[in-house]
Amino acid sequence: MTSFNYSCTKHFEGYPCCHRQWKHPGHCRYVHGYSRSFTFWFAAQKLDEFGFVVDFSSLRPLEKKLKEQFDHTFLINIDDPLLPEWKKLHSAGALDLRIMENVGMESSAKLVWEWANSHLLSNDEGRTCCWRTEARENDYNASRFELTPEWF
Question: Is the pTM of this model over 0.85?
Answer without folding.
Answer: yes
